[in-house]
């Protein structure tokens, strides 16, 4: 499928925005100073888990952005595979730590709920992406990688939703601010997944999956049946 200049420009702008926001968000934790942490913490262990979650998630974003650059897979397949491994090395621990960090949240279900759901979906998408790559089911692999990266960038879109909702609703107290934060967390990955599914369908990535997936097994079974009859 030919890639238009508009598509390339959109990918470039989106990639720059993702990288910039991710680096800005992670910068508060580079010094390993608990006082700079944005959420309230239970103690040093909570902080350590949070920092590891953030840094591995940052690796996933930076590696994932490059995977969607047109021509990388075709022209530099080895680089594509290496960066893919780096991506999974970031997503798998970060998603598991996301579940743990969510349970340690001091803000209750309003924040732990969306982060838990996001982390579980993120882990599942990564496992599926890795599994289909190893089985060389590249059509399905592409679909799961699109879904997975939509979840990876939830950390970016969540901040954008938070800024937008904060500006529109202007929360007057902590309770209202928490509601804005929780809403932004849900929107961060739900909207991303909806956009990802629209993209998958509009680009026609699912059209050939059933036939391509079934044809080898049907052919082999037919051959086996003919051999047994003979």
Please tell me about this protein's structure.
By secondary structure, the protein is mostly helical. The chain contains 9 helices and no strands. It has helices spanning 5-27, 44-67, 72-75, 77-103, 109-134, 138-152, 154-169, 174-202, 209-229. Helix 1 (5-27) runs antiparallel to helix 2 and helix 2 (44-67) runs antiparallel to helix 4 (77-103). The protein is globular, with a radius of gyration of 21 Å.
What key phrases describe this protein's structure?
single chain, 230 residues, mainly alpha, disordered C terminus
Which helices and strands appear, and what pairs or packs with what?
Elements: H1 5-27, H2 44-67, H3 72-75, H4 77-103, H5 109-134, H6 138-152, H7 154-169, H8 174-202, H9 209-229
- Helix percentage range: over 70%
In terms of per-residue confidence, which ranges show pLDDT below 50 for 5 or more consecutive residues?
Answer: 212-230
Order of helical and strand elements: HHHHHHHHH
Characterize the overall form.
globular
Q: Give the radius of gyration.
A: 21 Å
Main sheet makeup: none
Mean pLDDT: 86
Strand residue percentage: under 5%
Structural class: mainly alpha
Strand segment tally: 0
End-to-end distance: 44 Å
Number of helices: 9
